[in-house]
Amino acid sequence: MQAIWRNEWVHEYETPWSIFEKLSFANRVSRDDIFKLSGNSIERNKINPKKGDRKIDLFSLRSFDDSILEMIFGLNLVKFTQQSIQSLTKPLHSNRFPNTSWFSKHLRWCNQCISYGHHSWLHQFKLLEHCPFHNVKLEDTCARCKKNIPFVFSNRFFGNAFSCKCGFEFADFSSTLWENWDTKFKIVDSATLHWLSNTNQEDGRILILPEFGNLNILSVFHPYLAKKSFTKENKISIDDFYYSTQFNKDLYYNNVDTFQTVDRHIRKNVLWKHSNCIKQFWQLLKNDGEDFPDICPYAYAYVNWRKTLLKTERFYRSDIRINDVARSGGRFGYELLTSAITDDIKLLLEEYVLKNNGEKINKDTLEWIQEQWTYRFSLMFFYECLKYSGDILVNDKKNTNWDKILMDTKANFKIAFRYEEVNILSAKRINLMMYYENTIDQKNIEYECPNYSLRKKRAISNMKSYVPARISIEYSKNYELINYVSSYIKKHDY
User: What is the pTM for the complete model shown?
Assistant: First the structure.
């Protein structure tokens, strides 16, 4: 294939995606023409082969003949891609996760970079949320169809070169063609420069998960938020970690204590004026013959925060024993109040255990890591609930539910740990440092409380509870009231 191509169009850390897009645009060829450069091992649509969907994995490029690619692009594209990936993941090589797990599976791009035909592996790197060349937030959804686009070379998810299947153009080269494609950008992000230049990275001492870290909190410019030292006593074996019922109980109750610490902090520092509001909403209090009072946004956020984290079936309760935390599913173990973060923290603890190469682990270090994770995440989630509660109540945003807010919080949660062993007076100690980036504004959001007056606060104490168990007994034949309460619960229990 005789192709228009210039070697200077390929930049350091360039992805094969933009290289193929440039080839397609410059030569006015379709993706099917580029597929012909590969062998017969292209992945096809297994559900409906008649569709003719094809895709090529951009991490391995295993479908291509290396010699053909080198003839077109003037470099061994497979080797170039592997070197780019390995360079970015080198400080993480002792981690158990495969290299591909550190890169987004859907396309992320910088609008400024792509206007010059450039797309970098740095844009796909999960530990970066901003373009390191222009310091702007990376895009990850099509501006027209609002969908994520899989990071593959495919004739199913893309239209013309540098275009989504829906027709949205990532960049318009109709007037400039390729005259700016040789433009080189310098990395201006200090954390990225530090990461790429730090060849002496103590990789074995970093504890981080691909979805919950970024380069900023791992750089020397970001101080640790908490530090604790432990003696090398109170050890447990790997078998204890996986199979000991007592250890699992200890982890669980340690986590419950941490949650209750967060709960007390919130009630003391944020909700101290709204205890009556919480009681009214939680116990479904109202006066006979009247509608339910307006809900206080602070109470609404708090009650649903607990419901979502604790995975309780309903937001209301027949009592208000706030310090009760039931065991999830009647089991002991790694349950961290909600299944949304259980697997993640277990994976991080496993990573720490396995990095000790079969040696016994200090039990206190595991509990401290768990405490920090649970405390930071639970607090961050509360402020997200508080932020949305006003919109839900005032603007009646039915499409926003608490589980979605929980998952959005998880997506923005950034935390990592580093540990070191030191000798002090012939005694070995473990120093653990926690790095955390707070992406949530924790300033108190000002909402108008409907129960702010002393008269309304006193009125709540005289109201009756209308939880379903009570009205089914006392108002068994009052179907209008029962339907009203059921409708009220359904409206707020999502």
Answer: 0.88
